[in-house]
């Protein structure tokens, strides 16, 4: 099992991450599509080849073809949107907020799966990428759809653990030469 391989690759100094990875994935109460779509989208966003290689097969096995594609699409469109909207927010000239974005993001309106699941993937990727404006936007859509804060926070937990695992795994591989 790839998840167990990934957990065993986490060094002892980061054992909290090993425990948290098992907890956010193995003990999750999220429906399988929401859980594994979020895991896949975050693994892509974390930009770690090893983490993605280890988590993708299990994600693919637990997702429909549509959900698998939607998770990858969420990672893709959020990679663009998070940079764009974070930059617009960070620039001190507020007039940029009045300009038309002019970027295609049709998949947000028609993701091929339940909209709330796609929003869940998107908020998790936005957490990995650190875009406050996107976090606020996706959180508002999820709350309007009836999601509670505890459920939405699961996206942040998955995102933070996968990002931390990716950081440690990549650092250890770089140090090993």
From TrEMBL:
An annotated GO BP: cell redox homeostasis
Name of a matching Pfam family: CMD
Disulfide cross-links: 131-134
Catalytic activity: N(6)-[(R)-dihydrolipoyl]-L-lysyl-[lipoyl-carrier protein] + a hydroperoxide = N(6)-[(R)-lipoyl]-L-lysyl-[lipoyl-carrier protein] + an alcohol + H2O
Keyword hit for Secreted: no
Entry EC no(s): 1.11.1.28
Listed GO MF terms: disulfide oxidoreductase activity; hydroperoxide reductase activity; peroxiredoxin activity
Keyword Translocase: no
Carboxymuconolactone decarboxylase-like domain residues: 94-175
Main EC class the enzyme belongs to: oxidoreductase
Keywords from the UniProt entry: Antioxidant, Disulfide bond, Oxidoreductase, Peroxidase, Redox-active center
PANTHER family with a match to the protein in the record: ALKYL HYDROPEROXIDE REDUCTASE AHPD (PTHR33930)
Database matches in NCBIfam families: ahpD, ahpD_dom
Name the UniProt record assigns to this protein: Alkyl hydroperoxide reductase AhpD
């Amino acid at each position: 099992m790839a998840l167990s391989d990934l957990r065993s690759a986490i060094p002892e100094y980061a054992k909290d991450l090993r425990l948290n990875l098992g907890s956010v994935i193995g003990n999750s109460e999220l429906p399988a599509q929401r859980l594994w779509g979020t895991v896949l989208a975050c693994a892509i966003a974390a930009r770690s080849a090893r983490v993605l290689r280890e988590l993708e097969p299990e994600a693919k096995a637990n997702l429909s073809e549509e959900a698998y594609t939607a998770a990858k699409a969420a990672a893709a469109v959020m990679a663009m949107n998070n940079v764009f909207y974070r930059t617009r927010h960070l620039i001190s000239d507020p007039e940029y907020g009045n300009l038309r974005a002019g970027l295609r993001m049709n998949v947000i309106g028609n993701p091929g799966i339940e909209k709330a699941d796609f929003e869940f993937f998107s908020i998790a990727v936005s957490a990995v990428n650190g875009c406050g404006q996107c976090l606020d936007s996706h959180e508002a859509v999820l709350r309007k759809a009836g999601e509670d804060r505890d459920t939405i926070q699961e996206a942040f937990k998955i995102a933070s653990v996968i990002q931390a695992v990716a950081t440690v795994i990549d650092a250890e591989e770089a140090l090993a030469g």
